[in-house]
Design goal:
The longest helix is centred in the N-terminal third of the chain and has 67 residues. The protein is built from 27 helices and 26 strands. By secondary structure, the protein is α+β, with helices and mostly antiparallel strands. A five-stranded antiparallel sheet has the order 4-3-7-6-5, with helices on both faces. The chain has a five-stranded antiparallel sheet with strand order 9-8-12-11-10. Helix 16 runs antiparallel to helix 17.
């Protein structure tokens, strides 16, 4: 029987053309539908992302403004209804903020209290706009408008706080150029910042028209009734055009972001792709018809398998294999297809594994960071120190330790660090400049920190110290500063108390140890107070008088330092500086200054007498010698009558009862030498005394003996070298000072000779000669020995600046003046690198023998 039907050729043609064509057509239709749906979803996602991004940008802009406004609003005084100086300064420096107004709402009345303005808009216009804007913000505490389509100025109103039970609103004009440009710039999406009642605050023209409000749009009611923060929808627009819309709330009042795009425009790419697909479809059918004519029966199976495999791949099934064993192109295609399936399957498995592991790692890392933050927070707060961080603008981070609230007396969050540290107003600009210079690091960080505030002025008087530590990024750039505040009040108080108690104990011990010398010092100090008061009371205070006062006060300061009377030492030092200034003054200027100086010397004497009175049990009565014997005149007269004809007996009486060992008036200088050496970080052996048992009538020489304080201080400050310097030249590390006392007879007259020696570096005559020459003194003809004697000149010192120990140029002159007053002389000998010797010679003054009314003998 003959079979009727189509030939294999046509069957193959049918199989290769009609069926694949139908399937391909269905696939294209389905793919186009899916693509259209995906495209719309993509448009929604993109539009939603745009609206959320703009919402975040708007919110950030407002938060930035609020952060800038917060310290300004803080400076508004509700009582005086005015801004303080700090608030005005901050407003002036804030570039974005152009206007701030404070308005009070009382029922239906809105009253302006005060404002700050940097805008050219008139005051009346600003007040009218502010009143309208405050009215709008009454419902939810916030409102915002744009001041014209062509300007970047935005006017907003917000409720700040209640004052006297009446709400206060702040109206602010800001320059939001970046924010406005974000809405105005051309884009495939038209984005709008929508305010109260659908009013457009910022956004481009839409459909060639400037839209002022969305309140009449069909979607507005649906948005207002929605309780979600964001949404997308398809809605009708002008001219019955379909629009794709996304909506996001800003989170500030009624502000929200609307992003629109035409649906037809968004799907234009889909239409183009549809036409391209149709053209491709036609071409493919034509090509298939041609190929199918020449196709073989075996090709049908291979093609069908490949077709089925392709369909499965399109559905996401990669676990397939095409079984084609032919060696032609179809076989190669099948092998390639199979290899592709294996690779896609492997890639899919790896991608899934990576996604799963990524979620696990993120969760683990998040948990680790949370635990670390908790531990770090607990650790920092447990230290009891204040930690805060400020950036290159000087603004403090909201991250800080709880101790800041107590140590720095407030929350430092978002505040300028100079406000937190209570920097004085006249120093704020310097501190700001320091912050600006700190971060670029033109100088090393450690050097810049040296000029930073080291303490905080605590209202309760606590001693708060400040330390600064750098925070750097991986490129070693300074990004922020960690400031550490530490309460060291108890430590400081304990240190000061120990220091005061130690000094007091040392002073008492020194006075007790040298009681007789201290009494001599008190008598001499009392005499100095009286002499200075008399000199300052003279009708004319000339240059010699000033020099005399200066020498007296300088001696008083030196002796006060010997017995550690710091209160007298310090006042004498300041008084000495004032007398120094009087040397260059006129007589009239000196006379004008004398009342204040008399008042100061009176206070100094009063404090000195108070100390003596409070410590009388320790020091005894300074007006009396350490051991006294009152001899009635009658008994003394009878005794003298009995021995006046016996010169040897009279002389023996004087030597035994009326003369004292000279060494007792110099023993206390050992303590002074030790103190000066310690302050200059030098070492010195105890003073070596020779001939200290020499007995003399001490009373005439007391003023001379007290001036040797200058020799001690000068010797250790100028002469004795540091331990390293001494050992480097073969000397003992400890310096040696020697005092030698002797008598000699010259031309039948007895003389007392005092040699003061040190083994220091000596006096270099070249140094003295050069300084004298610079001062205009002609010393060209003088020998080195003569040059050295200038060390006794008043006002001459080898140092260029004075210290609390030496350098005034009066000490050695005081020794010379005291010796010459007794009819004696002084001489200085020195050898560079070996040492210096001061020679003082004075005539011996015997105790007068004759009738006296009363004698007090030591």
């Amino acid at each position: 029987m003959q079979k009727h039907g189509f030939s294999i050729k046509y069957k193959l043609l049918f199989l290769l053309v009609v069926l694949p064509t139908t399937m391909l057509a269905l696939y294209i239709i389905l793919a186009m539908k899916i693509f259209k749906t995906d495209k719309i979803a993509y448009v929604y996602d993109t539009s939603d992302s745009v609206s959320k991004t703009l919402a975040a940008q708007t919110r950030a802009e407002l938060e930035s403004v609020n952060a800038s406004l917060k310290p300004i609003w803080t400076g508004y005084d509700e009582n005086t209804k005015s801004f303080d100086t700090m608030a005005q300064s901050l407003f002036k420096d804030e570039e974005k903020i152009k206007y701030i107004g404070i308005y009070q709402v009382n029922g239906s009345k809105i009253k302006k209290l005060n404002d700050l303005s940097k805008t050219e808009i008139s005051s009346s216009a600003l007040e009218d706009l502010s009143t309208k804007l405050v009215t709008r913000s009454l419902s939810n505490g916030f409102a915002m408008i744009r001041l014209g389509k062509t300007t970047s100025l935005i006017f907003l109103a917000t409720k700040t706080r209640n004052a006297a039970k009446l709400p206060l609103f702040a109206t602010v004009i800001i320059d939001a150029a970046d924010l406005v440009q974000a809405f105005d710039r051309p884009s495939s999406y038209s984005s709008f910042l929508m305010g109260t009642n659908g009013e457009i605050v910022a956004g481009p023209d839409f459909e060639g028209q400037s839209i002022k409000s969305f309140s009449t749009m069909p979607f507005y009611k649906k948005i207002k009734t929605s309780k979600t923060a964001s949404m997308t929808m398809e809605t009708d627009g002008p001219h019955h055009k379909k629009l794709l819309l996304s909506y996001s709330q800003v989170g500030q009042g009624d502000l929200s972001i609307i992003s629109l795009t035409e649906k037809d425009g968004a799907l234009q790419a889909v239409k183009i792709l549809l036409w391209k697909s149709i053209l491709f479809f036609v071409a493919l059918i034509s090509f298939s018809i041609i190929i199918s004519v020449y196709a073989s029966q075996n090709s049908t199976k291979a093609i069908r398998e490949l077709f089925n495999a392709t369909k499965k791949v399109s559905q996401g099934n990669f676990n397939i294999k095409v079984n084609v064993t032919s060696n032609d192109e179809i076989g190669s295609l099948a092998n390639s297809f199979n290899q592709m399936g294996v690779e896609l399957q492997s890639a899919q498995a790896k991608l899934q594994d990576y996604a799963n592991n990524l979620e696990i790692k993120v969760e683990q890392r998040t948990a680790e960071l949370a635990a670390t933050n908790r531990n770090l927070d607990a650790m920092v707060n447990s230290l009891g120190q204040g930690f805060l961080i400020f950036n290159s603008e000087g603004i403090c981070s909201p991250l800080y330790s709880k101790a800041c609230l107590k140590l720095l007396e407030g929350d430092p969050s978002y505040k300028p660090v100079w406000t937190v540290l209570k920097i004085r107003e006249d120093k704020i600009e310097d501190f700001k400049n320091w912050v600006k210079m700190l971060f670029p690091e033109p100088l090393p960080f450690t050097d810049m920190i040296e000029i930073a505030p080291k303490t905080f002025e605590h209202e309760a008087g606590r001693h708060i110290t400040l330390e600064y530590f750098p925070v750097r990024n991986p490129e070693k750039k300074l990004t922020s500063i960690v400031l550490v505040a530490t309460d060291k009040t108890e430590e400081l108080e304990a240190t000061l108390l120990a220091k005061r108690e130690g000094a007091s104990a040392k002073r008492v011990l020194r006075i007790i140890k040298n009681r007789d010398q201290f009494k001599t010092f008190v008598q001499g100090a009392t005499k100095i107070f009286d002499q200075v008061s008399k000199l300052l009371s003279k009708p004319k205070i000339d240059q010699p008088t000033v020099e005399n006062i200066f020498q007296l006060i300088h001696t008083l300061k030196g002796d006060s330092g010997t017995f550690m009377l710091d209160f007298t030492f310090e006042k004498a030092h300041f008084f000495e500086n004032k007398i120094q200034d009087l040397k260059a003054a006129t007589d009239d200027q000196r006379k004008d200054a004398s009342p204040d100086l008399l008042s100061e010397i009176s206070v100094m004497k009063k404090d000195f007498d108070k100390f003596i009175g409070e410590n009388r049990e320790i020091v005894g009565d300074p007006s009396q010698a350490s051991k006294t014997l009152e001899i009635p005149f009658r008994d003394l007269s009878l005794f003298f009558s009995s021995i006046k004809d016996f010169p040897e007996v009279a002389t023996s009486f004087q030597e035994k009862f009326l003369k004292e060992p000279i060494g007792k008036f110099f023993g206390h200088y050992n303590d002074l030498a030790t103190d000066v050496a310690q302050r200059r970080e030098k070492k010195i052996s105890p003073i070596s005394f020779k001939g200290s048992e020499l007995r003399i009538n001490a009373e005439p020489y007391l003023d001379l003996f007290s001036t040797f304080v200058h020799a001690i201080r000068n010797s250790i400050d100028h002469g004795i070298e540091s331990p390293d310097a001494r050992t480097s030249v073969g000397k003992n590390a400890e310096g040696l000072v020697t005092l030698e006392f002797s008598k000699e007879q010259v031309d039948g007259k007895n003389w007392i000779e005092i040699l003061f020696k040190d083994d220091g570096k000596g006096i270099d005559p070249k140094v003295i000669r050069e300084k004298l020459t610079r001062n205009g003194v002609d010393v060209a003809s003088e020998s080195d020995e003569q040059i050295i004697q200038h060390i006794f000149d008043n006002g001459f010192s080898t140092r260029d600046s004075a210290s609390d120990l030496s350098g005034r140029g009066v000490g050695m002159g005081a020794i010379k003046a005291a010796a010459e007053q007794l009819g004696g002389n002084t001489q200085m000998k020195s050898q560079v690198g070996v040492g210096t010797t001061l020679i003082v010679k004075v005539p011996e003054i015997e105790v007068p023998v004759g009738p006296v009314q009363n004698i007090t003998a030591a």
